[in-house]
Amino acid sequence: MAELIDGKKISTDIKDELKEEVSKLKAEGREVTLAVILVGDDPASAVYVKNKKKACEYIGIKSLSYELPAETTEDELLELIEKLNGDDTVNGILVQLPLPRHIDEKKVIRTISPKKDVDGFHPENVGALLIGEPGFVSCTPAGIIELLKRSNVEIEGKECVVIGRSNIVGKPMGVLLLRENGTVTIAHSRTKNLKEICKRADILVAAVGKPKMITAEYIKEGAVVIDVGIHRMDNGKLCGDVDLDDVESHVSKITPVPGGVGPMTIAMLMYNCIASVRG
How far apart (Å, rounded) are the C-alpha atoms in residues 155 and 152? Predict the structure, then answer.
């Protein structure tokens, strides 16, 4: 039977470690402040923002909340970001994605100061990741590395396959696995012989965005599987990109959905906020 990797527990352990660090910073007279901007009333985004605020409260990070109407113009949003860039009391700026269609996400990401870009999306931070320089790392891939390490999964020398090539998960995930000395293949929707490639993987990261697409046919016996997907089914239940029931008997370890990767993303966001103060 596969071991379920408990992202809730591991993320709580990380948050407890960060809580101690924040109280040490406070003792030195240093406050950690995160500004969170939400544009519009997307229900999923509202839930994410609420969870981020809750995590800030738990750890002792001050959070500033900017909840803007959907009709906010791009210029108004950029003006607010520039104001926060110039505010020395704000350490991290997070703009919840997706944004309404009339706002250019790329422009918004580039406007956030790289030194306050705790999501790790700014081209400067992405470039730093690629060449091994210090900078903020995208929270979901960083969280997956922590999940693997804290679950005693050896990455060095292992065949790692990432399905998905997004800027937020797939690409940085590949770079981080390489950094840990994994042998990495990034596969995607145009990849030929996808099943055969996945079956080589000692560590498979599924970030394909299709519910239950990854079945036992894609899995090498005894592989470690990280499921990044999250989808709501017609019955209201959540599922991932991996068909857990189908693959469970073939894998050694797997992340459940919910309760796997999701909580880690928020824990690593908190980690980045504190790193912005440490400098």
Answer: 9
